[in-house]
Amino acid sequence: MLSSLLKERFLFVGIAAAVLAYASEHSLLEMGRLPVLAAAFALVVAIVLVSTRIAHHAEILASKVGDPYGTMILTLSAVLVEVVILAIMMQGETSPTLVRDTIYAAVMLDINGILGLAALLGGIRHGEQPYNDDSGKTYGVMILTAMGISMVVPEFVPRESWHLYSAFTIGAMIALYALFLRMQVGAHSYFFSYAYPRAERKEAHKSTELEEDEPAGLSITVIVIGVVLIGALAEVMSVLLGAGLKGSGAPPALMAVVVAAISAAPEILTALRAALANRMQSVVNIAMGASLSTVILTVPVMEAIALYTGQPFVMAMSPTQTVMATITLIAAAINLNDGETNAIEGMTHFILFATFVMLTLIGL
User: Fold this and answer.
1) How far, in Å, CA of 233 to CA of 253, rounded?
2) Is the peptide bond before 96 cis (omega within 30 degrees of 0)?
3) Cα dist from 346 to 119, 124, 233, 283, 333, whole Å
4) Phi, psi (rounded to 5 degrees) for 130
């Protein structure tokens, strides 16, 4: 019992942070910008810690129930944190481009940041790292289609027709996700797997064997508590971060980058460990799969909220964002086309990520 509680210490850290944040929110807002930003950063750390436990227990449930439900659990849990934070932050005085900027930042972070750094470090250690090139092609074309429909075409949709196009977008994203899930767990499931040597498979199985013994009820309870806790933490974080950044001259998209980084945090270490263990297929599934899930699941939820409230979000990407997304997807299509990655391919994506960071800092 005690060992199980110790494993969930990050949840208790989150609960303590939430209690402290709600008790001191008003007094913090009167202390000035620096204490407010420090408190907001502490809450971001607490949210990341809680989200790592959600991701951990989602993996346990996925391994227990198997496909297709396992895949659904992993995908939905990865996006749930982001959607909860976005929905709460949109209730306050936030930028109408927050949803768009968050999705864009998540794609840059997942493909250029996670995939780029993992392929770079893995390539330096192992040279060329094999994976199933069918997965890279499938992910790439679906991300391109989903982003094109939801974040490029809206630029040309007349304002008076936004309700109709939003409804269409929701239907299109649901159709794409349904087909993707059918492919991932059905006849084309081999697109997303790679046959590693038996020794590596046995080692991977051995490392997860003990974790699968944890009861499913515990995992479900932790996920529910974690999501509620993240919602509570995000509410105070949104207020503090907004107050701290107001009038500071910080880039408008900074809050979006924070949200994207929070949702991607559990995936970063997992992807780096997989790359250093020469398991590039896991990296491709994590990075490209997270990008696709962010676009294909976040968009319909947020569009539904917009239709419900009658307040549309600005979903069309800026010219700079469109160019960066296009370069990223072209580079990914070229690099993920031959079934092997190397350090040079990783470096190209990581440089694109550095460019994204620089453009964000200068307000583009």
Assistant:
1) 20
2) no
3) 4, 10, 35, 12, 13
4) -80, 155
Tens-place pLDDT, residues 219-262: 888 888 888 898 888 888 888 888 888 877 788 788 889 888 88
The angle subtended at Cα 186 by Cα 201 and Cα 70, nearest 5°, is 60
Strand partners, 130: 340
Is residue 11 within 8 Å of 225, Cβ to Cβ?
yes
For the segment 49-91, what is each residue's pLDDT rounded down to a tens digit? 888 888 788 778 777 766 445 556 766 776 778 888 888 877 7
CA–CA separation, 289 and 143 (whole Å): 9
Q: Report the candidate in 353, 348, 300, 299 with the shortest Cα–Cα distance to residue 325.
A: 353
Where do we find the tokens 């750390």? 45
* CB of 84 closer than 8 Å to CB of 51: no
In angstroms, how far apart are the furthest CA atoms of the chain?
60
With beta carbons less than 8 A apart as the criterion, state whether 289 and 75 touch.
yes
The 3-class secondary structure across 153-215, one letter per residue, is HHHHCCHHHHHHHHHHHHHHHHHHHHHHHHHHHCCCHHHHCCCCCHHHHHHHHHHHHCHHHCC
CA end-to-end span of the chain: 51
**What single letter denotes the amino acid at residue 127?**
G
Alpha-carbon distance of 264 to 107, in angstroms, equals 10
What's the pTM?
0.86
Compute the distance between CA of residue 362 and CA of residue 6 in angstroms, rounded to an integer.
43
pLDDT, position 144: 95
Given a contact cutoff of 8 angstroms between Cβ atoms, the answer to whether 288 and 140 are in contact is yes
pLDDT 10s digits, 140-165: 999 999 999 999 999 999 989 999 99
Mean pLDDT of 21-31: 88
* CA 275/CA 284 separation, integer angstroms: 10
From residue 364, give the alpha-carbon distance in Å to each of 51, 109, 137, 320, 359: 29, 16, 29, 7, 5
